[in-house]
């Protein structure tokens, strides 16, 4: 019997199916919104250990709010099967774009790597969450009706960790992560941290530059051996038009030993930028990769031409809950925009800001968009300093710009949301869901109402009792 509804969500159509379940485009039961719903297979859902880890990972992921990460909305169980809903992204994925255009220009590669790196650094910094399946196909490009890239989002957080840590699942032959991009320690089943994701991001970047993954093999065993025993290939061998200085960057990021790799995605992104610009002494490296947003048309397509195959390129944000068991060599792509913001150094002397524009070209005949960096210089004061302008703290609902996405207010109560372009409450993320109308004890506290996406506030009722209400 064909399903028409899952846990109150009306099914609009099937988006896809994988080794662990199905993905549907659904209509939210209360809000005027369409979501992507991942319904896991009954066999996986019945595993009690996996179920517990699934729920734990979903609870952690629900607290992540970042413009380069697909948002997880809700989770539950339906007819003995686990499900989760998340943001639905209309567009394509980077792997499909690479298949259609081939290797990408350096500027586009940098924008993609910076976007994915920003998401990975944020997840590790906020919740110590590792992705474990970084690859081109998990980088989604949100595209509007004019074929303009609105945003780039990293998908497939969450279930990979739950599956890998569940002995009964891994023993049946499920391999978590796409092997062409998997780190040596992940292949060996060792304990991993963010440096495993940095390795996978390095494999992805190599593929973007050259058109093929760094390690290949005709069989799964051969590919595993290449990761475990082989030396990183020279990028200049496959892409001779690129600076040879990139070779040393990939030698480090693809090192078999995690301690020999870069310590953050930001450090890796900065090293790539330096190598492309011919610098041997790196600029100041930010603590983590900066947020990237897209505003440019998809390369190779007229900005006002809506492809006839568009209906086949609905990409779901099943990020929080999808694991792979395949050997694949994917592709990657990005929009032509890259911006790096260095942290302003602390100094007693005034700081002046200079915008430096550089151009990176993939071939002598192809000019790409400029990379923009903000450089801060310390100067000796020669006159009285200008009066300091104090920027007032934002209030909830106030609009915020692209350069503020992911920023947090000084008091830690609001963040600039990429979803609605406004300063949004974040205090509810640290509390479990509540039931509307029940008593509470912290006046002004915020929490999500169970079973919905609505946010409740702890406030006085007509009789003076503190209850959760709108």
Automatic annotation (TrEMBL):
Top-level taxon of origin: Bacteria
Transmembrane segments: 314-338
Keyword Ligase annotated: no
Molecular function GO labels: ATP binding; protein serine/threonine kinase activity
All copies of domain Protein kinase, residue ranges: 9-276
Database matches in SUPFAM superfamilies: Protein kinase-like (PK-like)
Enzyme nomenclature, EC number: 2.7.11.1
Keywords, comma-separated and alphabetical: ATP-binding, Kinase, Membrane, Nucleotide-binding, Serine/threonine-protein kinase, Transferase, Transmembrane, Transmembrane helix
PROSITE patterns xref list: PROTEIN_KINASE_DOM, PROTEIN_KINASE_ST
Protein's recorded name: non-specific serine/threonine protein kinase
Species of the source: Gordonia sihwensis NBRC 108236
């Amino acid at each position: 019997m064909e399903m028409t509804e899952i846990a109150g969500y009306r099914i609009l159509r099937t988006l896809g199916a994988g080794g662990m379940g199905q993905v549907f485009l659904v209509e939210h039961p209360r809000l005027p919104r369409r979501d992507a719903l991942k319904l896991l297979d009954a066999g996986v859902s019945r595993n009690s250990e996996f179920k517990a880890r699934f729920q734990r990972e979903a609870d952690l992921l629900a607290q992540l709010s970042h413009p380069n990460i697909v948002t997880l909305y809700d989770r539950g169980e339906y007819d003995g099967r686990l499900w989760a809903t998340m943001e639905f992204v209309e567009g394509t994925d980077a792997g499909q774009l690479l298949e259609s255009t081939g290797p990408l220009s350096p500027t586009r590669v940098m924008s993609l790597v910076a976007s994915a790196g920003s998401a990975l650094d944020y997840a590790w910094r906020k919740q110590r969450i590792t992705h474990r399946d970084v690859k081109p196909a998990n980088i989604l490009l949100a595209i509007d009706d004019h074929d303009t890239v609105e945003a780039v989002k990293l998908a497939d957080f969450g279930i990979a960790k739950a599956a890998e840590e569940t002995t009964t699942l891994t023993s049946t032959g499920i391999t978590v992560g796409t092997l062409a991009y998997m780190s040596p320690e992940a292949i060996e089943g060792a304990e991993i941290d963010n440096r495993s994701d940095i390795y996978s991001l390095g494999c992805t970047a190599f593929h973007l530059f050259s058109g093929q993954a760094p390690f290949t093999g005709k069989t799964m065993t051969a590919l595993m051996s290449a990761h475990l025993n082989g030396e990183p290939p020279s990028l200049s061998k496959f892409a001779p038009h690129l600076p040879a200085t990139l070779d040393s960057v990939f030698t480090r990021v693809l090192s078999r030993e995690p301690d020999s790799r870069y310590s953050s995605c930001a450090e890796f992104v900065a090293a790539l930028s330096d190598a492309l610009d011919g610098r041997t002494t790196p600029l100041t490296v930010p603590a983590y990769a900066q947020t990237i947003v897209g505003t440019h048309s998809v390369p190779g397509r007229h900005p006002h031409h809506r492809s006839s195959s568009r209906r086949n390129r609905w990409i779901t944000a099943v990020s929080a809950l999808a694991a792979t068991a395949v050997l694949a060599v994917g592709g990657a792509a990005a929009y032509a925009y890259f911006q790096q913001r260095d942290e302003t150094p602390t100094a007693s002397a005034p700081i002046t800001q200079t915008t430096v524009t550089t151009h990176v070209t993939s071939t002598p005949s192809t000019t790409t968009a400029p990379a923009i960096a903000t450089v801060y210089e310390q100067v000796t004061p020669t006159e009285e300093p200008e009066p300091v302008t104090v920027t007032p703290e934002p209030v909830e609902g106030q609009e915020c710009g692209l350069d503020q996405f992911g920023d947090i207010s000084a008091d830690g109560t609001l963040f600039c949301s990429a979803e609605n372009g406004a300063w949004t409450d974040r205090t509810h993320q640290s509390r479990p869901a509540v039931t509307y109308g029940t008593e509470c004890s912290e006046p002004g506290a915020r929490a999500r109402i169970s079973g919905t996406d609505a946010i409740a506030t702890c406030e006085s009722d007509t009789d003076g009792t503190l209850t959760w209400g709108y």
